[in-house]
Amino acid sequence: MNELNDGKPRKIENARPYSFTLEEDTTNFSRYVKGGIVTQVKLPKVLHFKPLKVALEELGEYLPSEFSKHDRSPLLHLAFQALDIFKNDFCRFPITCSEEDTQKLIDLVAGININLGEAKLEEIDDKLLRRFANGSRAILNPMAAMFGGIVGHEVVKACSGKFHLLFQLFYFDSIESLPVEPLEADDLKPLNCRYDAQISVFGSKFQKKLEDAKIFMVGSGALGCEFLKNLTLMGVYCSQNGELTLTEMM
After folding, report:
1. pTM for this structure?
2. What is the pLDDT of residue 250?
3. How far is CA 181 from the centre of its chain?
């Protein structure tokens, strides 16, 4: 197969420790006898990102956070645009448990969807949008920590050029973490404490359980110290009744 010695890079498939398959027709090549040296070459990949203004105005490329939620990103795309309009119009985010604010957000999403024309979504999940509106004011430590890690990762990728960036839009939700049944309005009222944002989503009763929790944690190294930080910022084990037992292998 002297034809392979022309110096041109060739795509392969089915790469294994001791074999691979060429992605081209080799029927007219000379017979392979033995030996040979193959060098792996990573070719550059060009990504064409749309400007933010264009990407916001159409349903485009989404990187799914979970394959079981592949149809959720387009709706969240509209929801965040509606939230931005709501914030600009009223200089605030929707109030938790406010039916009026929630309905305004849903109406904004419906209006944006209609303007998409043929690309509009066939169905809009009002239940999801209600949860979105009720939690839009809160900044929760677990979500902030996760997105902070993703953004930091993207910066490293952009500076190194070794891996390509997320393409083009990425939305993440954790609806399954929210209470299954709606909470009472009194349970969601702020207590003028550092955990008010968390209380507005999960309720003061749940927050009390977190603060009174007794936690046993193994390790305080690279990951352990991050766990400790996140647990502390959530108020876990931070009351007089709470307790943290930490063990470290020496």
Report:
1. 0.81
2. 67
3. 24
